[in-house]
Amino acid sequence: MDSPKSNSDCRMSLTAGNPGPEFKVVSFTSPSIPS
Questions:
Q1: Which residues form the domain of 20?
Q2: Tell me, what's the pLDDT at 16?
Q3: Which intervals of the chain are annotated as region Disordered (predicted)?
């Protein structure tokens, strides 16, 4: 259940038009997600 939530957060950040630091952090904190 944590996997889908992390993905959503990552996507939301991108949609928000953020610089990208958050996206990197999420990706690094969720290396278990095969996606």
A1: 1-30
A2: 54
A3: 1-35
- The first and second tokens of residue 15, run together, are 């949609």
Does residue 8 form part of some domain?
A: yes
Give the relative orientation of helices 21-29 and 2-16 as an angle to the nearest 10 degrees: 170
Torsion on CA atoms 22, 24, 26, 28, rounded to nearest 10: -150
> Of 35 and 32, which is predicted with more confidence?
32
Q: What is the pTM (predicted TM-score) of this model? A: 0.16
Pair of tokens at residue 20: 């990208």
Choose among 32, 34, 30: nearest CA to 13. 30
